[in-house]
Amino acid sequence: MYELDHKLFLALNFDGGATMDAAMEVVSGTAMWLPLYAYIAYMAWRKFGMRGAVTFVVCVALAIGLADMLCGIFKHTGLLKHLWESFPVRHRPMFDSAVRDLAHVPSYAHGPYGTVSAHAATIAALAVMSALMIRNRYYTLFVVVAALLIDYSRIYLACHFPLDLLLGTLVGLTTGGAMYLLWKKLDATIERFAK
Question: How far from the centroid of its chain's Cα atoms is residue 83's Cα?
Fold first, then answer.
C-alpha cells in the first residue's frame, strides 16, 4: 500500500517555482481562510441568531480541536500523544528515505511525522459542519474545492502522502458530523429552556 502511496505522491509533487511555492504556503496557512471563517459565523448568526451562532462556533471549535488531537495520537504529538505510543509513526515525505531525494521540498519547517494529516482533518470537519448548516450547493462545492486545494497544498509542500490526507479527511468527517449532531441537540435543548 505504501508503494502505491509513494508513487501517487511523486506523481502529484513537483517544482512549480518560487511563486507556486509561496502560493501553496499561503493556501496551507490560516490567514487566507479568515474570510471563510467569518462568512461561516455570519451565516450561522443570520440563520439562527446570536445564541445559535455562538453554539455553532463552539461546536466547530470542538470538532476542529478533537480532529487535531486525534491526528496527534498517530504522530505522537499534542495532548493525546501518549495514548497509543506503540503506534508506528510515519515520516513526512520530506523526511521519508523512500521519496525525499525525489520530492520537491520548499521548506523543512515542519515536524517529522505526517500520518494522520491534521490539516485534512480540520478542514474536513469545518467543511462538513458548515455545509450541513448553510445547505447551499454552491457553498458546498466551494468548501469541497477549498478542502481539496488545502489537501493538495500539503502534497505539493511534501508534508503529507495522499494516504495521510485520506485518513485525516475521514477523521474530520467523523468529528465534524458528530459535532454537527451535538450542535443540533444543544441548540434544540437551549431553545426549549429559553421559552
Answer: 21
